[in-house]
């Protein structure tokens, strides 16, 4: 199995990292991608990948961290610094441990009762998010990496940017992480050969369940978004934090939801993820087929 999105680089796992990795591997999760959200977490993701077989890094600046770029005209040095630092992380990867730029994207959600609750989702903030997103998309093409896209309540802006900056290079090399249940996002994903990431929230969100029913299995990749989005029944039991060891719970739920065998779900989603991040070809053929009208 493959957990395509696990924040093992977060402080929540600082003292338990090796234990969590070992437990996840024992649960059958052979592969993992650890995404960055800023420069320090991207560097940590690369460190983890260097020290563990079949664990890969993604590096990127999450839209939340674009707040430091507002207003752009007063923070141009900071913007250049962030882009240069991120490129430095990419250049520091001499062993091919970085497989993607991510997680990057747009976010207009107000996160109440979190450290982000005082962020003002205004035009300046959105412009800053757009600016750093475009720069990172360009870096992905330059360094031939896949892309992990974060989107929350910013669909129209996101699709506008992707339409403007789309390149055929990204076909089969992009994923909508924890994809919002939105038909426009799904149609864009189908027509542009983008994978859909499905997380533990599918086990309790009826809206997400109905959405995933309309996604071909050949487009799905599994992710935990650890330490977040704990799946049921662990969510009701408050057995936090979420870890990659819970991928089997998600795969079983998807199998039941789509009327497929667990073995089939595991096989196809793992092949999809290997294609997405390691560019193996079998899944590219499937996603190309289902994207055709």
Automatic annotation (TrEMBL):
<feature type="binding site">
    <location>
        <position position="225"/>
    </location>
    <ligand>
        <name>a divalent metal cation 1</name>
    </ligand>
</feature>
<feature type="binding site">
    <location>
        <position position="177"/>
    </location>
    <ligand>
        <name>a divalent metal cation 2</name>
    </ligand>
</feature>
<dbReference type="GO" id="GO:0046872">
    <property type="term" value="F:metal ion binding"/>
</dbReference>
<dbReference type="InterPro" id="IPR018228">
    <property type="entry name" value="DNase_TatD-rel_CS"/>
</dbReference>
<keyword id="KW-0479">Metal-binding</keyword>
<protein>
    <recommendedName>
        <fullName>Hydrolase TatD</fullName>
    </recommendedName>
</protein>
<feature type="binding site">
    <location>
        <position position="7"/>
    </location>
    <ligand>
        <name>a divalent metal cation 1</name>
    </ligand>
</feature>
<feature type="binding site">
    <location>
        <position position="103"/>
    </location>
    <ligand>
        <name>a divalent metal cation 1</name>
    </ligand>
</feature>
<keyword id="KW-0378">Hydrolase</keyword>
<dbReference type="InterPro" id="IPR032466">
    <property type="entry name" value="Metal_Hydrolase"/>
</dbReference>
<feature type="binding site">
    <location>
        <position position="5"/>
    </location>
    <ligand>
        <name>a divalent metal cation 1</name>
    </ligand>
</feature>
<feature type="binding site">
    <location>
        <position position="150"/>
    </location>
    <ligand>
        <name>a divalent metal cation 2</name>
    </ligand>
</feature>
<dbReference type="GO" id="GO:0016788">
    <property type="term" value="F:hydrolase activity, acting on ester bonds"/>
</dbReference>
<dbReference type="InterPro" id="IPR001130">
    <property type="entry name" value="TatD-like"/>
</dbReference>
<dbReference type="Pfam" id="PF01026">
    <property type="entry name" value="TatD_DNase"/>
</dbReference>
